[in-house]
């Protein structure tokens, strides 16, 4: 990695501004329903505290759209963090201004202060220079552990780095190392599995990966558009008619580039989009007019698992079928098994893909589970993320 890391800077006794992604789900009574994102930052925070840094935490929560919305207060998050880390977490009721400045100034080595929701100020998302400067004035270094927002040039992510040096936290470092390495210098053979509902969501990813991978495996709803492009009748399956030409182009590009593009040869069809639908596997040339393909078929699943066997790098984004319904989860489960069993460096990204993986109980067999939905997609599309670009170079 060509970026400085936490280990490259002397943080002992320093004030460190740590941008985290504590955008946690809450129920209507304001209780945190899942604290994974808080737990995920503990290694960075414990490291900083153990090195006697004074930690100033900043995050967004929800979409308050630039004004103070009490239900999006980070106060409950500060409380939960305090329980998880077993230390006091002080709380500033605004992220900038006299109070925040005084509290940051008084913060002693090893202490933690959490600032109120950054997005209570519209200047955060506008990347306002003065707001960035105010945030920067609280600390001597910035640490970015919020990969999930690193595709946004926001004040706490990008603007602040114009005033103080920023390095990645351990979570962020892992994202850069795994995704960055896979995309810039992958161990080969390199296989990617792309699925999910629509081609249109993943065009950029497919185009970028076509010039990097050895094998490209397509499943999910988007496979139907590719099947239609190959001339198969796909009944009532989800098809993006306006993307047929693009799908043809991508199939041609794969040929030109020598990429082994794999498409379903059988699918599980259903008579309606419902958990209690009638269903059965059929060959892709036998999809009846009023049925729809909701999963890859068993032969395809085996073929995909086989294709993953020798891979040294595997990137997976998007389920192979409507995994939320038991009857159409088998293709995704089979692929999850194959990825888990392979010796490859395996990287899984995407909210639904991670949910599907967790259902199989195989998450611990994956080398890296990427936390940022939009951010990991943009990296896979080959884009430079402003939050990563702004980190200090070695
Ligand atoms: P991720 O969140 O991992 O990036 P997507 O959001 O792109 O994945 O796609 C996930 C959705 O795609 C799931 O809700 C799943 O039900 C849907 N899906 C998968 N296969 C099909 C299909 N054959 N027809 C319709 N929807 C599908
Ligand atoms: Mg999704």
Structure write-up:
- The chain has 394 residues and is of the alpha/beta class.
- The protein has 2 domains: 166 residues, Phosphoglycerate kinase, N-terminal domain (Rossmann fold, 3-Layer(aba) Sandwich); 195 residues, Phosphoglycerate kinase, N-terminal domain (Rossmann fold), CATH 3.40.50.
- It is 36% helix and 16% strand.
- The protein contains 15 helices and 15 strands.
- The strands form 3 sheets. A 6-stranded parallel sheet has the order 3-4-2-1-5-6, sandwiched between helices. Strands 9-8-7-13-14-15 form a 6-stranded parallel sheet, with helices on both faces. Strands 11-10-12 form a 3-stranded antiparallel sheet.
- A hairpin with an 8-residue loop joins strand 10 and strand 11.
- Helix 9 crosses helix 10 and helix 11 runs parallel beside helix 12.
- The longest helix has 15 residues.
- The protein is elongated.
- The termini are close together.
- The mean pLDDT is 96.
- Bound molecules: adenosine-5'-diphosphate (ADP) and magnesium ion.
